[in-house]
Amino acid sequence: MNHTSHTRAVRFLSGLFYFFSIFIFINAFNFQHNPPGAWRQQFMPEIQGLDIEDVVFLDSLTGYAVAQLNFILKTTNGGENWLIIYEDTTSVQFIFKRIQFISENEGFAGGFFGLNYGMMKTTDAGQNWSLVNTPTLLRTSLY
Questions:
Q1: Is 52-142 in CATH node 2.40.10?
Q2: Which residues contact 17 (CB under 8 A, 6 or more apart)?
Q3: For 89-107, what is each residue's pLDDT tens digit?
Q4: pTM of the predicted structure, to 2 decimals
Q5: In 3D, which of 44, 126, 29 has the Cα closest to residue 86?
C-alpha cells in the first residue's frame, strides 16, 4: 500500500490526539493526589499488650472495640484515635469476647466473668457500663 504524505499526516495527528486524550483524562481526575486505598496501621492506647477481640462500627466514624481483658475502647474519627471508655478493675476480671450496638446509644459487650458468661450494657453510647443480670452457666458445661 502506498502511503502519501496526507495519510502519514492523518496517522500522526491521530496518534497525537490519542496521547493528549489520555494525558488530559489522567490530569482531569488528578490521580496523583488521591489518598492511598490500602490498609495502614492504627495506634491504640496502652492496653497492656492485650489483643483486640472484636470491633464494631456504627457509621464511618464511630466505632467500638473490646480488648481481651478489661478494656472497651471507642473511636469517633474512623479509627484514627481510640480512647479507653471502660476498664474493669474488679478482682474477677471480665474477659471480653464480643461487642455489639443495637442503636446509637445502646450496646452490649459480652464474654466471661470469672467462670460464668456475662454481659455489660450501655445506654449512653459507652459513657457508663453496667453488668447485665444473666443466667449462671459455667463455661465448662458448654463445651
A1: yes
A2: none
A3: 776 677 889 999 999 999 9
A4: 0.66
A5: 126
